[in-house]
């Protein structure tokens, strides 16, 4: 089973899909999410969001000014600014 991940900025949906692992930076430090993770609501810090997709490929985005919410197997990351990196 995979996580359903949505990463949005103030302007647009940056990425949406299934992932096996997501690591993001919060004001408390880095946190990783996999299926079955307990519910979390945290303030997003400026940094990288690293997404390992269900097929093993990687997606990296920069994000700042926002929050993340984990509920069930759905992770939502809302950032004031976010963009995929090449």
Automatic annotation (TrEMBL):
<keyword id="KW-0406">Ion transport</keyword>
<protein>
    <submittedName>
        <fullName>F0F1 ATP synthase subunit epsilon</fullName>
    </submittedName>
</protein>
<comment type="similarity">
    <text>Belongs to the ATPase epsilon chain family.</text>
</comment>
<dbReference type="InterPro" id="IPR001469">
    <property type="entry name" value="ATP_synth_F1_dsu/esu"/>
</dbReference>
<keyword id="KW-0813">Transport</keyword>
<dbReference type="Pfam" id="PF02823">
    <property type="entry name" value="ATP-synt_DE_N"/>
</dbReference>
<keyword id="KW-0472">Membrane</keyword>
<keyword id="KW-0139">CF(1)</keyword>
<keyword id="KW-0066">ATP synthesis</keyword>
<dbReference type="InterPro" id="IPR020546">
    <property type="entry name" value="ATP_synth_F1_dsu/esu_N"/>
</dbReference>
<feature type="domain" description="ATP synthase F1 complex delta/epsilon subunit N-terminal">
    <location>
        <begin position="3"/>
        <end position="82"/>
    </location>
</feature>
<dbReference type="InterPro" id="IPR036771">
    <property type="entry name" value="ATPsynth_dsu/esu_N"/>
</dbReference>
């Amino acid at each position: 089973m995979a996580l359903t991940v949505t990463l949005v900025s103030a302007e647009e949906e940056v990425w949406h899909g299934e992932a096996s692992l997501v690591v993001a930076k919060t004001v408390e430090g880095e946190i990783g999410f996999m299926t079955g993770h307990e519910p979390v609501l945290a303030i997003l810090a400026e940094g990288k969001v690293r997404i390992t997709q269900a097929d093993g490929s990687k997606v990296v985005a920069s994000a700042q000014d926002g929050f993340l919410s984990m509920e069930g197997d759905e992770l939502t990351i809302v950032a004031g600014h976010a963009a995929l990196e090449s």
